[in-house]
């Protein structure tokens, strides 16, 4: 089952979590210089940086283009369902980071493939973001 990763709007905190049976540190940073500002994510393992400054964008798998990490998927979700990116103050409250394991992603891909086979094409009108699980 997907799990919420607890985050705060405090950039001095490195949140330690277990992802895919690995001890991972997540550090968020807010950059106020673009539009209304945006959040980025640094990923560390045993104190060593693996990835720096991943843009934390709603609905997209933050790890989609970093397939060799083997950490599953990290997806930002707006709990208000307004499609509003996290502000400097609502990361971890109105906008959450959800982790899907590699196994969960494989199961979602299977369901999507079966749906496509049954319907004869993409039928994602229900809001499922197929691109987030490629």
Task: Supply database-style keywords.
mainly beta; 134 residues; four-stranded antiparallel β-sheet; 7 strands; three-stranded antiparallel β-sheet
Folded structure, characterized:
The strands form 2 sheets. Strands 2-3-4-5 form a 4-stranded antiparallel β-sheet, with no helix packed on it. A 3-stranded antiparallel β-sheet has the order 1-7-6. By secondary structure, it is mainly beta. It has one domain. The chain starts with a strand and ends in a 15-residue tail after the last helix. The chain has one helix at 102-119; strands at residues 3-5, 14-19, 22-31, 38-45, 48-55, 73-78, 95-100.
CA-CA gap between termini? 19 Å
Model regions low in confidence, pLDDT < 50 over at least 5 residues: none
Radius of gyration: 16 Å
Number of spatially distinct domains:
1
Helix vs. strand class:
mainly beta
Taking strands numbered 1, 2, ... along the chain, how are they ordered across the largest sheet? 2-3-4-5
- Treating each run of at least 4 consecutive H or I residues as one helix, how many helices? 1
Mean pLDDT over all positions: 85
Strand % is 35-45%
Total strands: 7
Main pleated-sheet profile: 4 strands, antiparallel
As a percent range, the share of helical residues equals 10-25%
Question: What is the chain-wise order of helices and strands?
Answer: EEEEEEEH
What would you call the shape? globular
